[in-house]
Amino acid sequence: MINESLLNPQSIVVVGGSDDTSKPGGKILKNILDGHFNGKLFVLNPKKDKVQGVPSCQSVAELPETIDLAIVAISAVHTVPVVKELAQTKNTRAFIVISAGFSEETQEGAQLEEELKNAVNEVNGALIGPNCIGVLTPTYSGIFTSPVPKLDPSGCDFVSGSGSTAVFILESALPKGLTFSSLITVGNSAQLGIEEVLEYWDNSYIPGKSSDIKLIYVENIKDPDKLLKHASSLIRKGCRIAAIKSGVTDAGQRATASHTGAMASADSAVEALFRKAGIVRCFGREELTTVASVFNYPKLKGKNLAIITHAGGAGVMLTDALAGGGLNIPAIEGQAHDDILNILNPGSSASNPIDILATGTAQQLGDVIEYCDTQMDDIHGMIVIFGSTGLSRVFDAYETIHKKMSRCKKPVFPILPSISSAHEEVDFFLSHGHINFPDEVVLARALTSIHQTPHPADEEIYKEGIDIQAIRSTIEEAPEGFLDPATNNELLEAAGIPIVEEGIATSKKELTTLAKSLGYPLAVKVIGPVHKSDVGGVTLNIKSETHLISEYRRMRKIKGVKSVLVQKMQTGTELFIGAKYEPKFGHVVLCGLGGIFVETLGDTSYGLAPLTFDEARSMVRSLKAYPVIKGTRGKEGINEDKYVEIIVRLSTLLRYATEIKEIDLNPLIGNKDEIIAVDGRIRIEAP
Amino acid sequence: MINESLLNPQSIVVVGGSDDTSKPGGKILKNILDGHFNGKLFVLNPKKDKVQGVPSCQSVAELPETIDLAIVAISAVHTVPVVKELAQTKNTRAFIVISAGFSEETQEGAQLEEELKNAVNEVNGALIGPNCIGVLTPTYSGIFTSPVPKLDPSGCDFVSGSGSTAVFILESALPKGLTFSSLITVGNSAQLGIEEVLEYWDNSYIPGKSSDIKLIYVENIKDPDKLLKHASSLIRKGCRIAAIKSGVTDAGQRATASHTGAMASADSAVEALFRKAGIVRCFGREELTTVASVFNYPKLKGKNLAIITHAGGAGVMLTDALAGGGLNIPAIEGQAHDDILNILNPGSSASNPIDILATGTAQQLGDVIEYCDTQMDDIHGMIVIFGSTGLSRVFDAYETIHKKMSRCKKPVFPILPSISSAHEEVDFFLSHGHINFPDEVVLARALTSIHQTPHPADEEIYKEGIDIQAIRSTIEEAPEGFLDPATNNELLEAAGIPIVEEGIATSKKELTTLAKSLGYPLAVKVIGPVHKSDVGGVTLNIKSETHLISEYRRMRKIKGVKSVLVQKMQTGTELFIGAKYEPKFGHVVLCGLGGIFVETLGDTSYGLAPLTFDEARSMVRSLKAYPVIKGTRGKEGINEDKYVEIIVRLSTLLRYATEIKEIDLNPLIGNKDEIIAVDGRIRIEAP
């Protein structure tokens, strides 16, 4: 587990420290020295007395009694004995193993890695790596790479599953002026991985003291539940998290029997997980560091922005990009419009964007910013675009922006495009600790992707009218594979999901008795084949006994059919709810309109079970076909509340029946009063 | 018109040249001096003999006999007399008017601008501006702003409708290493605008000598036809064009009576125009300059890319972004896979991305690039990601990449992320004239948006079986407003568009006679109301005379209904084709599936009339509902060729009937054999 010895050591030994700074052991020592580590620093190097001016011991025994942290940069085979000896004799409780040659390379390496982990676990220590670039905290710069970021307790906390990618992310972050509070690269994650770092951040979080900005680069999510729990907890405490999850797992490419299976790629599970947690998902380094830059400013408390500029074109591109992503640039009218015009030179525009013209002064700029901050309740933030044409210096304008940013209650985002011709002024501005966004559209995309990320979902599971005991006993008794219709219905009934009145007929007599009790019109479907329609196994709207019997006879001749399902015919619009079990993530639940919408247009939205009502409602409303559910010109809609409730109920069912690998309720038939499941397939596998 | 005096003057006078470089007249003179103009340079300033060391005349008369170009930076009111005098007495045939205070400010200014234009037109001269930042050519740096880009005949030609935006675009371009061949800012475009600059570029294009890269920033397209003509001509000659068109015109917000009107915003016209021309559309400065950077490399001749890297994470993010945008990163298998593995260290990966590991050498890197270039026919370009962890210098790798880039037949795109820790190496690499892409995802988005831009459409208009004379005479005789069904049919027939058999009945007798000749089943629709369904004015699938007569009686009672349209009932899938006339652009043609697809899902695609078969096919295939047209599991499709042909025919009809402001063919009924228009509305206005 992460401990104080790792994050705040009083003493460090660099095992394999060297004078050659082109080697990890040499470079990491140099970085620690350059970073002014305040504790005791040693090197373990059998060939030297001093390395880079640091005392070097020839053996572990020569080291002082207590060494908090060991940073190990020697070949893999020599690692385990040294780690054991340090743990056992020097009270070392934290290890960062830089060395490669473990599980990422060979079977023997994996064995070594296991021994390494056991050696650290035995003393209840912390292990980072192996095969990583190190750790950076406000106490020490324990990475062997460049660049080394500026450390600042309120800067970003950053955990990365890839060392080289972490380095390249720093390359993108540093020119922007982003600072860091910590960097942990987990390497092979033998003991501590991304999820454990998040857990530590969550458990150790102190409001006002801990950094509120967390960045993640992850290639492989090992424990989605843990990630969800701690990421959403951190966000509820006031943190803001952005993450890149790169690559799509092989699992996503598996062929599956159902539509849901084909539609829900493993990446939808990641997407759903991030949305549930409230993590802003990014797809590239530049995007991640821009979102992190926005995180350095106060939160927008609404979606209305004022744009203040002296250059029309940039304002128009910014407006296009913000509006395209769901943010508002409301027209400014009435008194506010007149008040702002009064501040400005003739010819200026006080609608939104507010154009103060090339002749606008720093004073006017400041007055407009202040007016938006104090006099306009319906404006939630300001974006200022101010460059230079090179005719004169713009120090006064940047000084004004700086002062207003410090004083305004609302966030002010600066776009200073003249990074080369006004680089002195921009540097002056940045020296106050601000972050500049040189490109308005890049900023707009970061703002809108933050805006589009929901708050973390509630954790409580909806259970009203759901008989969990009945669900469990049905599941436990069921054989693997596709369930028969009766078992399907038991499960859906236990979850409180309305199902169509129906019965099974294996003979003509059963058929006619059933028909009488249900009443016409009826629908008849074969039992057996998975793709019923493909074999001519579905007939709808049967209105007479003659028709019913003729269909029954025909269907009994279809291969594999011994009985048919007889249902009361439902009328309304076809809906669909499905789910697919994604290993480790749980169930990705999909919803949408049925028929062509789901099969051809792929118009579905998805979330991760269990779902709250808010999540399910947001899924339904994000469908392109939502207007059909809401009702369109002259056409009645579908009961949205009931649809949302069924999605939630199904997600609870799945939460308590992880044996269900695939489920398709397709179709459900809905109208303005009710929604009823008329066909479903459920496939289970033993856990 | 643009002339040699403007682009390649032998003599320049700066009118209003000053010693104060915080004034446009001072700064522009300084920029010309710094840019080493080789011709004769003068200043016109009544108060000075010398300005910045340049001889200054107190009056026009004192200037030498011939002055090719005048750059005017004095107040608007004084501009016209000086321009006139120069034109009349000094043979000046080119004018760049920097001064503001013309049509952009006041009515009087607009009058002055008109006089200015007339004065230049009188001598058949060229006028840039007023209200611009100037012109930059390889001969002189005639802009008053900073930064001034590096000039290079093979650099970008850049025309901008906004001065400040041009400056900010240069701020984004220069750090990337982009060079420029020319910059023209058109200001108020009194005489020469964006379109005229394109015309000049087109007419003066010399293969191998003219720059092949053209950039455009435009806020208002005044002459879409001219822009289309010259942009597509340039692209056919081998140029590559990227453009930003910012803002959506007011016209797009007009309320209109038809669905098409509501769906086709003015921005669809821009989008359609750019696609027709083959212009890569960008939405921000960073995006524009990245696309321009890609333009500096050879064209990709296919969509298969090899990624070569020593850092896994960046390769994965790049793969995700390229594949998401339609480019391929094909798996490398078989002999090629083994050959590449043989080049590399054990543990490397030769699938795609090719991972040469952190231990990979410059030699190996070069060998892999060369292998992809010479041995792999199915790879069309390579992307190399090579950074530094800060342990050692990477000069050798960058030297290798540079050499391979110069020799490879296929494009090699370099991603060198370590812009701070390896900035010396990156600078060394850039000094060879290359452009670096520090972020892989930003490069991927530029590559994919270039990939998604079609080639310019053919110019020939399809006329087979289209009776243009009949179209014209029908249009000329028709009254304004919505046409009656008979006139609708005349137009569609003249264009060779199949229409349903039908007739109009104003009495019961006409009705029954018509029914007999058409045969049941029939559809009946009211004539008069625009939204027929809303008033209960459409009944389909009438199978008996009794039913027909009862519907007729009911419909005649609907307000405004004096007659009904009786049609042979068609069966099949509903399709839709519509168009809206966009002032100056012409007709934006939309197509899609009918009913809910168009009304609720808005699943339409669009193009600008007249359309080629290729364009229409690409429109049909880009529909989300295209699988319905193609035919899905167990469901017959719709005749795609016929659909494409009708779209083309309609677009030709519109080309010769610009009086048509809106047209909706909704629905057309299609099956695998035929497609027939069963309802249409056409609204015309006098030209």
From TrEMBL, chains A, B:
Coiled coil: none annotated. SMART domains: CoA_binding (SM00881). Residues 489-525 form the ATP-grasp domain. InterPro entries: ATP-grasp, ATP_grasp_subdomain_1, CoA-bd, Ligase_CoA_dom, NAD(P)-bd_dom_sf, Succ_CoA_lig_flav_dom, Succinyl-CoA_synth-like. Gene3D superfamilies: ATP-grasp fold, A domain (3.30.1490.20), ATP-grasp fold, B domain (3.30.470.20), NAD(P)-binding Rossmann-like Domain (3.40.50.720), Succinyl-CoA synthetase domains (3.40.50.261). Keywords: ATP-binding, Ligase, Nucleotide-binding. One of its GO terms (molecular function) is ATP binding. The keyword Metal-binding does not apply. This is CoA ligase. It comes from Marinilabilia rubra. The lineage of its organism: Bacteria, Pseudomonadati, Bacteroidota, Bacteroidia, Marinilabiliales.
